[in-house]
């Protein structure tokens, strides 16, 4: 196999720098599947992987990219054959194991999901980890009894990857979605995705948040965490459910127990990284069918490997919108 392009993050005296380098197959980590990567995507964790204080990657030089979709070039595992289209997200990919920002990747067969019918390789990466996390969050609301008739469902960080896919899925399923955003200029886009209303994120975090506030939300998909999540808990209706997956708004949770013990509010943690394979496949099947966003392609922009570092900086500044699909 010839040398191929990969985006390599490496330490410099000033921090971490990403640049395109030529790699050979023997520089790839061990694994049963050699994959010709067609698309990857950009997630918040990828941006952290290339940030000096991101605490995601421990050893450099490193190829980030927690998502990939492509074609199996060679397989040492009976479950996958040459020419098969697969996707992989999470586990150690792009964290401890070279990820999707290379034209080729070698991965353990245990991490691979056969591309479900109903999604192309590109569409799988429009979803990517962010869309997979949105789907897990929606499923958590449904599993905990949140139904469209129950009233409005709030999505925080609504213009981001997890948020925008969650808005699209929930509105497709008939929920009345309130989208919270820090980008007032994105209001029309969010309404176009299916939100019934859009609120400014500042509205959710008053100077003095109340432990118990007016009961507004039947459910919440939150990828922001921090004070905004703590403040939102007080506005959840009796018996409502909050699915929490992220930390863009902070890692502390300065909340009281009152929403839990007086209103039976459920706070469900969402992890996308180590979801066991049967549930992982089921969630991808849902993304390819019932949950598949109607305007899937409108959620994303396609970028090249060389554009990734600039897109990472936009993301870390909290200014990213929708999903960036990386074409290899
Ligand atoms: N648990 C898991 O397995 C898992 C999986 C995927 C992602 N995540 C986490 O989920 C979060 C979102 O990931 P993503 O890929 O969707 O990132 P993203 O595309 O950058 O979206 C994050 C959104 O959060 C909002 N935001 C940014 N800074 C904020 C701040 N200081 N206060 C409040 N809101 C802020 C912004 O939306 P608005 O401007 O619209 O408010 C932003 O677009 C990240 O923390 C990521 O690590 C976790």
Automatic annotation (TrEMBL):
<dbReference type="InterPro" id="IPR011032">
    <property type="entry name" value="GroES-like_sf"/>
</dbReference>
<dbReference type="Pfam" id="PF00107">
    <property type="entry name" value="ADH_zinc_N"/>
</dbReference>
<dbReference type="InterPro" id="IPR013149">
    <property type="entry name" value="ADH-like_C"/>
</dbReference>
<dbReference type="InterPro" id="IPR051397">
    <property type="entry name" value="Zn-ADH-like_protein"/>
</dbReference>
<dbReference type="InterPro" id="IPR020843">
    <property type="entry name" value="ER"/>
</dbReference>
<feature type="domain" description="Enoyl reductase (ER)">
    <location>
        <begin position="11"/>
        <end position="326"/>
    </location>
</feature>
<dbReference type="Pfam" id="PF08240">
    <property type="entry name" value="ADH_N"/>
</dbReference>
<dbReference type="InterPro" id="IPR013154">
    <property type="entry name" value="ADH-like_N"/>
</dbReference>
<protein>
    <submittedName>
        <fullName>Oxidoreductase</fullName>
    </submittedName>
</protein>
<dbReference type="InterPro" id="IPR014188">
    <property type="entry name" value="Acrylyl-CoA_reductase_AcuI"/>
</dbReference>
<dbReference type="InterPro" id="IPR036291">
    <property type="entry name" value="NAD(P)-bd_dom_sf"/>
</dbReference>
């Amino acid at each position: 196999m010839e040398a191929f392009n990969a985006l390599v993050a490496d330490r410099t005296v000033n921090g971490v720098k990403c640049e395109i380098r030529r790699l050979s197959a023997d520089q790839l980590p061990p694994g049963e599947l050699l994959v010709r990567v067609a698309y990857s995507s950009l997630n918040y964790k990828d941006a952290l992987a290339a940030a000096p204080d991101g605490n995601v990657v421990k050893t450099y030089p490193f190829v980030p990219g927690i998502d990939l979709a492509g074609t199996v070039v060679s397989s040492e595992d009976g479950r996958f054959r040459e020419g098969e289209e697969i996707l992989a997200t999470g586990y150690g990919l792009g964290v401890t194991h070279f990820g999707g920002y290379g034209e080729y990747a070698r991965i353990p067969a245990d991490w691979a999901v056969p591309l479900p019918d109903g999604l192309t390789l590109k569409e799988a990466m429009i979803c990517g980890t962010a869309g997979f996390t949105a789907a897990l969050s929606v499923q958590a609301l449904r599993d905990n009894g949140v139904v469209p008739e129950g009233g409005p469902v709030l999505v925080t960080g609504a213009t981001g990857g997890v948020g925008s896919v969650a808005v699209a899925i929930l509105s497709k399923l008939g929920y009345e979605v309130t989208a919270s955003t820090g980008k007032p200029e994105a209001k029309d886009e969010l309404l176009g995705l299916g939100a019934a209303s859009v609120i400014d994120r500042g509205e959710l975090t008053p100077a003095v948040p109340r432990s118990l506030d007016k009961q507004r939300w039947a459910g919440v998909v939150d990828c922001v965490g921090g004070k905004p999540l703590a403040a939102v808990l007080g506005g959840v209706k009796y018996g409502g459910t909050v699915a929490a997956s992220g930390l863009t708004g902070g890692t502390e949770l300065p909340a009281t127990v009152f929403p839990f013990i007086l209103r039976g509010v459920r706070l469900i943690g969402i992890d996308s990284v180590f979801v066991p394979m049967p549930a992982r496949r089921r969630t991808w099947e849902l993304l390819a069918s019932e949950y598949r966003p109607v305007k899937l392609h409108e959620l994303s922009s396609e970028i090249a490997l060389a554009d990734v570092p600039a897109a990472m900086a936009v993301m870390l500044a909290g200014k990213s919108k929708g999903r960036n699909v990386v074409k290899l």
